[in-house]
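Posting this for the archive.
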Amino acid sequence: MMEHIAIVGLGCLFPGAETPAQYWQNLLDRRDCTTPLSNTELGVDPTVYFDPTPGTTDKIHYNKNGHVRGFQFQSAGYRLPKAQLDALDPLYQWTLYAADQALKDAGHGQADESIRQRCGLVIGNIGMPTHSVKRLFADFYHRMLDPYLQTLLGRPDFHLQAPWSAAGLSEINLMTGSHNATIAAQALGLTGPCYTLDAACSSALYAVRVASYYLQSGQADMMVAGSVCHADHVYIDHGFNVLQAFPTDGESVPFDRHSQGLKAGEGAGMIVLKRLSDAVRDRDTIYGVIESVGLSNDGGAKHILVPDFNGQMLALQRAYQQVNGEIDYLECHATGTPVGDQVELGSVEAFFGERGHIPLIGANKGNIGHMLTASGMASILKVLLAMKYGTIPPTIGVKDMVATPKGTLGLQHVVTQTCDWPSHGGPKRAGINAFGFGGVNGHMVLSEYHPQMVQTDITTLKTVPVSIIGMGLSLAGTDTLAAFDDTLRQGRDHFSPLPRTRWLGLEGRTDLLAPRGFDGAPVGAYIESLDFDCKHYKLPPKVIGTHLLSHLFLMPVAERAFYDAGYQLDGEKRNIAVIVAGDVDLNCARYQARNEISWQIRQSLGRQGIQLTEAQQLALETIAKDALFPTPYPEGITGGIGNVVASRIAAHLKLDGPAFALGSHENAPFKAIELAQFMLSEQLVEAVIVAGGSFGGSLENVLWSSLRQPGLPIGEGVGMVVLKREDEAQAKQDRIYATLTGLAIGHAVEGDVAFTPRADQVAQIAARALQQARCTPDQIDLLELCSGGQHQLAEAELAGLSQVYQTGTRSQAAVVGSVSGNYGYLSLAQGMLGIIKTALSLYHRYLPPAARWSMLATGQALPGLNTLAAQAAWDAPTGVRRAAVNSMGLDHAYAHLILQEPSETNRQQAKVPAPYQQRVGSLMSRVYTGREQTIPDMILTAEHCAIFGTKLPDAVTPTLPAKPTMPAAQYDGDALWRESVRTARSQMQFLRAEQQFYRRLNALLGGQLAPTVQPVKPAAATSTAPAAPSKPVLFDLAQLIELTDGSVAKVLGPDYAEADTYPIRTRMPSPPYMFVSRITAMSAEKGKLEPCFIEWECDLPHDAWFSIDGLVGAFVSLESSHAMIVAFTYIGCDQLFKGQLRYRAVDSQTTLYSDMPKAGEVLRGRVNIKSFLKVGKNVLIAYEYLCYVGDRLCFKLEANSGFFLPKDIEKSKGVDPTPYLKATQSAEPFKPLLTCDKTAFSTADIDALQAGDTVACFGPAYQTARVGHLYAPAARMLHRIASINTDGGAFGLGEVVGECDIDPDHWAFKAHFKNDPVMPGTLVVEGCEQTLKFFLCYLGLYNQLDLTPHTLIDHHYSAKFRGEVKCQAETLRYRLTCKSIDRTYEPDGHTLQQIALVFVAEIIYRGNVIGICDNLGAGFRRPGIPQQPPVKAVQPVIEVAK
């Protein structure tokens, strides 16, 4: 058994706490350390970023998070110059501070040199751009945009003005991916393993587990492990705003069912680790002992952002596989998100409940917010301090516990008050959960130290040889191993001039290039684009592009490598790990700049006195934003979360081993392979996929590269290897390309932040690797170099290797070369592609020529080394072919890796996998590494110039051709046009599927999300009305009734006979609730769940049962949309789903543009079915419904419906009305025009009002009234008013509670639906409307004969249902709360001109709120007064379940 690891030192910097002691006191004091953003952090007024509506693009609606405030870093006394440390961002300073504090707490201060030589630093890091990055790039992006905005405005004097200065900031601040660990190690004199990793919110546990490997293997004697989270607050908050993870009501309470989201945090936490026996020997203070850490990934069980019960259970099972499963306390992940907390508590209940003991639980995020990558450190420190003091601090705020599946874990298990640690006579034991974005799961088991814990049967982790059994890559002009191999053999290069869009048309801007030492774009092996199969990889075209660039390139390569290793995409879960090695991509700064440019434009225009209309100003902001970076979407936001690319690979390939990103600049692939070797040696996983990639050819990455000099060629691409233990690969007869026998990595302490390559370090690390591989220098025949970007690097590398490989016993010099000669300097991908090149050479037994060697090297002599002009057969004078791959990088590290050819037995017996078959995708989209257009083309268009009254410059031409006037058949020969059409069609197919997917998926899981997209009134030119009434009829009324109540086969033919066998099938409501007279057009196709449309008409006779006073209830027009069910019947949904799924509407959003259809008119409708999305066994459908009378658009409804399993329909637990009933400001009271003493009304009173007798209902003051009827008699949904007032409710504007007696014999149950009875949701909403009208009567508005009731135009209203009204006797209640009353008066100040009232209605059934109708509205105005919309009306998500 591996030795336990002791924790001997603590350090932290958290919100409100600069030491562990302060953090502990804050927990005991129940202190909420979250605060709003301020000018202090941002350098600008936070209101420039604010918008009250969640999800508003490029804005933030919530910012009360855990911020580190008032911390002053003391930079003196470290091993780096004070001035250099002062020039660094807080990201670097916090990392160093917390690590130094932990080392000092462990008793190892600055003077303790010996231990630091054997001490390393591994930390979780968020790797996002900071405020310093924003400041360093602001001037560059402003100068980049200036000339185009000047031309657009016709104002050559316009300049964007930066609000802040970059003076005093080091450009090292741009390296936010891993360099904070490098700087901390340099400043502290640590020469052991050093890198960062990103496992999202699980990063701390992953870092601790990884750091433990170096102790258990003997490679280090002490490790500092922890995690840090610090980034540009706007960048993070904006991302969460797009994801709608923040609470809509501002309340975030872990475990509480009313919590609506998380609040973010920031900070740094570190612990010092030693082997337990060493800690005991050294008499260290032992805060706790790590018994185990269980890691897992969800492996694609659900969407990448949705937690999975089984994935969490797997982490728990792995953690307790070899240790006691009974713990006293569990510190939960508990972020306060409804779905996240529910899934976590469900897994906790299931796992510990099965073992007969559910521990006490708690969480800390209510105190300090969710510190993301650093959150796990807050949990670890809390548990360690609780063990130390024997006290468990409270979890604050929780009152109404999230329900668990079995109900056995409840509020009684939550530590809501400070309590003593449970006493049972043994050591204290606790668990810690950490579950992150991407399905990254971790669970740690901690124990109080006890002398009996010292182990006697300790096993040292001995690394075993690991083999490369699969490979994949993507480079310029090279997507297969065969093509790569051919390039290497021939010594070719793939260099070409810069593609047109790679630098966005800025390569001629010497004003941007010259300050960085470039006079133009260097030649290189650039990648401009790839074709991505959206359907195969389950990503809609709308979201692919710059946001997800690394994901889109790595996923196909991962699949090819997976197949190359002999695996198949068979749906089977495999315990395989994924490590994506790399570092920060500076392209993220463009997204950061997009977040800032709007207010900077406004400020610059104001300072320069340039006046624009509001419309022009908004247009200018949008143009500039979109030129910098595309509009963000939820899926795209995941591209900025470092670990998600690894999780996306794991999800696609169904892998449930650990999946995360590792950052360490150019040496990241080597450190990832070292870590993979640990995992395989421990037999933690079956295999490990290691990926490395770089898109270093972008403008920012080239200009700001520290290891690239102008004039040398640029390269970019990705590579991937699949590793397995050599003994297991041989036993399973896997094809082995090469076997790793030696790998040495060392770090040099320079005394300076700058990296200076050293030949002596190269030689020292190469000698260590040879020793580890148990071979001599003369047994290495091939050396792959990392040189290619900088001559200084090449000189040091060749000098160091010559010292080692210049031997007198060698029969021939070792052959050297670099993949840079073929593809340019590949930056972060250099090491991985060098490894793949070397493995191929070993496997195929040839020595490759050194392409472009004279360009890479400086002509120096190569003692003991040689280059080839052409490939040569690889003889084996020493018996076994061996090669080495060398590396060095900005992390001040040097690496040397030894590979050996496979055995002859493996060559003869290995099962060579079948060649990978490239799929011809059915939904292909082109992905650009830059953008589809250049920045000049994006900004300077004729349309944009027209906005500002300027002329399009002659030099600017569109990137894509204009729409052709020639026949389509002739134009089809133009490849560029075909690509444009294909992309457009793909995009149309998924136009809103992505946003709807997240919203619906969360809704199905019980979440409550605010709106993401507000509807826009369609212009006449773009609103397509249905066909004219004279259009031929596809299905008449008799056929529709037959389809609904009779036989489908009789109408559609014998192919549909199967549908008739299902008693419950897809059908429209039966008469009299069928509001469709004929179908006039339809594009649905049999058997195809694809976008289509359907058009119909509905006659609205004056004498129809639903007509009253010449009007038609809104429920008729809304319910008419069920004509689309005919399309589902025609597609054959019943046959496809075998009658197992029930059709239900999920949600809709309605915008009124004119009066609703009236009696005597013909309703014409069109539904455009936009997409079908499968979620588990259910199918979600997105569509829009346009309702017309003639050519007049009455309303537009954007909606989702679907086919669901009955059990999923029954799962709903109602709606929380709290967010709808929170007043943001005090309302101005409204005095009723008439006064009634009654506060409740009987059925007889309602009957009297319906009959027009207002006096009998309200009293004599209401004598003169023209109410009309409340309802059509058969549509009555109101029987009583239980209570009513005019100044109550949450907003102080009035509240009314109506009641309806549900009769099982009601005709609606027979009509909606046959054999599947449920009260129509539209009829329930009609009950709310009837109650609303009663309230208006009560106010006396119908008694004002000079006020005319009218429909609120351009008004949005909603109804969200999470339950059904069953065919059973019951009382249904409507509680309407008036939320706004907007009115204007005549000059006399008291005579009303017009009034608009808006309500929120709760639908209460069997004691639960099953629905919310929001923004129900009504208006009155005097003749001749134009309507003004209610200014306080909001536009929420509108959801109607039927």
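Residues 1214-1442 form a domain with the Thiol Ester Dehydrase; Chain A fold (CATH 3.10.129.10). Residues 956-1030, 1429-1442 have pLDDT under 50 and may be disordered.
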